[in-house]
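As the next step, I wrote out a protein sequence along with its fold in token form, included below for the reader:
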Amino acid sequence: MESMSDLRIAFSASQRPEAQEALVRLTKRYGQVDESDADVVVALGGDGAMLDAMRRRFEDKKPIYGMHRGTIGFLMNEYEEADLPARLDRAERVSVNPLRMTATDIHDQTHRALAINEVSLLRQTAQTARLRICVDGKERLPELSCDGVMVATAAGSTAYNLSAQGPILPIGSNLLALTPVSPFRPRRWKGALLRHDAHVLIEVTDPERRSVAAAADNQEVRDISTIEIDEDRSMRLTMLFDPGHALEERILSEQFAF
């Protein structure tokens, strides 16, 4: 990264009023460049704004620094207008790899998308979803009756995964969480921890009658018949955090929260 005096910053913001107000103040104070010309992208809002900014970095992989101007801000730093270039210069880097979703629908159309938090499957109707789960070519669960299931990264393990009673994964653990959503049968199945390089195949039983949607973060595809999930090791994204507030520390702290 450039020295703080020469740093070219691109600000992006969610549509929330507080994020838009911060955008006006910060661009007036520090200027604004196009993201294609920036050394760093500063995202203003909640975790959704951070994820949107990260998805735009799949090609150029520029670092992203988030400041909390939204609701949930687990991936964000505290909002402070003063000395921003100095904060960026001191920031700690955390690298994450997204998941790649390859989904086939009932019309034999293939859909691909990348996810930073999780790839999830959810029933579309009142009918319980019935899913067959294979890991690395081996059937691990012949039938899971549930509302859905997800594969979550360490960075995403404190988001939807945690709400579904999934485990919190430390950054650097090289693990993925396979977590069910409201499992009916087997009722006591709580999910599994997988290696980061595991290949997950999920088949929807009777997809015409028991329709299922798949989502890579908030990118949804409906009427899925099969889905494959892998970690994309060619894509390495960089998030910036203030010293002492890095994502690894936040995940550790969350495990001791009540």
Q: What stands out?
A: The first helix runs from residue 17 to 30.
